């Protein structure tokens, strides 16, 4: 009998932030077609099967079984989304990723491994992109440490406040770190030059 607990990363859950309004995209960017799927489903399908997934946003059909939740009130921003998703997480580590980052999974795997190998004083492993920007929405955190610093209410607060946690800066570059904000962004992911 196969025991999933023996696989690396068994103590990771994922919070996918999918509650934005897609204003710059002009329509629902998470439903936009990408490589025979959608932007959101591309991300969800690539996540390790052993990682439970909580998606924060309005429920929709997806290729993978997930738990849906919303921040209260809706529209509170990414940090409020992290707070809502974290309420349903029971694992030691939580990966946080924006739903418009369809190729982020290789980066999440590297971040989870880096944090798992770090000492308990390190609260997070945060992706640093090609331009040396740390992205708190492409990161893996120790769940208890995020709960301890989460502002109440989190509604309207900046997600960058999570960078106050002691964290590793881990290079996650190229397509893995890119999100879809505009149709041009999606085209760049579909037709890389």
How would you describe this protein?
The protein is an alpha/beta fold. The chain has a single domain, classed as Spore Coat Polysaccharide Biosynthesis Protein SpsA, Chain A (Alpha-Beta Complex), CATH 3.90.550.10. It is built from five helices and nine strands. It has helices spanning 39-46, 78-86, 105-117, 143-149, 183-190, and strands spanning 12-18, 33-34, 37-38, 53-57, 67-69, 93-98, 124-128, 134-142, 167-171. It has a seven-stranded mixed sheet, with helices on both faces. The protein starts with 11 loop residues before the first strand and ends with a helix.
Along the chain, the helix and strand elements come as EEEHEEHEHEEHEH
How many domains, as an integer? 1
CATH architecture: Alpha-Beta Complex
Trace the largest sheet across and list its strands: 5-4-1-6-8-7-9
CA-based shape = globular
The overall average pLDDT, rounded, is: 89
In CATH's first tier, which class applies? Alpha Beta
What gap, in angstroms, lies between the N and C termini?
Answer: 46 Å
* Total helical segments: 5
Number of strands: 9
Per CATH, what is the topology? Spore Coat Polysaccharide Biosynthesis Protein SpsA, Chain A
Strand count, sense and barrel status of the largest sheet are: 7 strands, mixed
Strand content: 15-25%
Uncertain residue ranges? 1-9
The percentage helix is 10-25%
């Amino acid at each position: 009998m196969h025991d999933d607990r023996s696989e690396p990363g068994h103590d990771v859950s994922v919070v996918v932030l999918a509650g934005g309004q897609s204003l710059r995209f002009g329509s629902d960017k998470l439903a936009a077609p990408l490589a025979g799927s959608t932007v959101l489903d591309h991300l969800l399908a690539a996540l390790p099967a052993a990682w439970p997934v909580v998606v924060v946003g309005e429920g929709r059909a997806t290729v993978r079984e997930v738990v849906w939740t919303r921040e209260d009130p809706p529209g509170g921003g990414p940090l409020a989304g992290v707070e809502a998703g974290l309420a349903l997480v029971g694992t030691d580590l939580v990966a946080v990723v924006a739903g418009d980052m369809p190729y982020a999974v290789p980066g999440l795997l590297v971040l989870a491994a880096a944090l798992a190998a770090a000492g308990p004083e390190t609260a997070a492993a945060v992706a640093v992109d090609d331009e040396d920007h740390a992205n708190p929405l492409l990161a893996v955190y120790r769940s208890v440490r995020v709960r301890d610093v989460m502002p109440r209410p989190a509604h309207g607060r900046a997600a960058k406040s999570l960078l106050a946690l002691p964290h590793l800066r881990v290079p996650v570059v190229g397509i893995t770190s890119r999100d879809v904000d505009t149709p041009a962004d999606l085209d760049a992911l579909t037709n890389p030059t």
